[in-house]
Automatic annotation (TrEMBL):
It is found in: Cell membrane. This is Endo-1,3-beta-glucanase btgC. One of its GO terms (biological process) is cell wall organization. GO terms for molecular function: hydrolase activity; transferase activity. Glucanases play a role in cell expansion during growth, in cell-cell fusion during mating, and in spore release during sporulation. This enzyme may be involved in beta-glucan degradation. Active on laminarin and lichenan. Keywords: Carbohydrate metabolism, Cell membrane, Cell wall biogenesis/degradation, Glycoprotein, Hydrolase, Membrane, Polysaccharide degradation, Transferase. InterPro entries: Beta-glucan_modifiers, GH.
Length: 171
């Protein structure tokens, strides 16, 4: 149906626009060869940081080998358990990491995560940024001043940018 005839029959106009919409859905835009970066959490079915069941080092390596075909940059959320191997494995595969440190209401946990995050950041050149927490303020786990303290502590200890991640509505 020619576009100039659309107004003459509203049913045809509706059909034309529906078909145009369906055509667009069937032809997604080209996917770029390389993606600038991806968020990465290596957990498989049955694995969970809440259950303290972590992927193996080999599983993480296999994941990174797959991801490497589409990106060289990953962002993580924690350094707990075997997740601490991500910066080393990424370095071996010529990938970079925005390293996440998971912050909760548990100050002992936070101290361990911060210490390990700083250690890994200083040890592996693959770590290009350090993220202190993910949506910790949204979850209301800690007060803002404690998050600021954690970030200032990390900034004094590393030579990469340090930030936090959260919902934009909070800022």
């Amino acid at each position: 149906e020619h576009i100039s005839n659309m107004g003459k029959n509203s049913n045809k106009a509706g059909t034309w626009s529906t078909n145009l919409f369906k055509t667009r859905l069937n032809h997604p835009p080209d996917w770029p060869e390389m993606i600038s970066g991806l968020a990465y959490a290596p957990f498989r079915p049955g694995q969970s940081p809440y259950k303290q069941i972590f992927p193996t080092r080999d599983q993480i390596r296999d994941d990174l080998l797959l991801l490497r075909s589409v990106t060289r940059n990953i962002r993580t959320y924690s350094v707990e358990g075997t997740l601490m191997h991500i910066p080393e494995l990424a370095a071996e595969l010529d990938m970079t990491v925005t390293l996440g440190v998971w912050i909760t209401e548990d100050e002992k946990h936070n101290a361990r995560e911060l210490l390990k995050g700083v250690e890994l950041t200083n040890r592996f050149s693959s770590v290009r940024r350090l993220i202190i927490s993910n949506e910790v303020l949204l979850r209301d786990d800690i007060p803002v001043d404690l998050l600021v303290h954690y970030m200032q502590t990390a900034r004094r200890a590393v030579n990469v940018p340090v930030s936090t991640s959260g919902d934009a509505d909070l800022f």
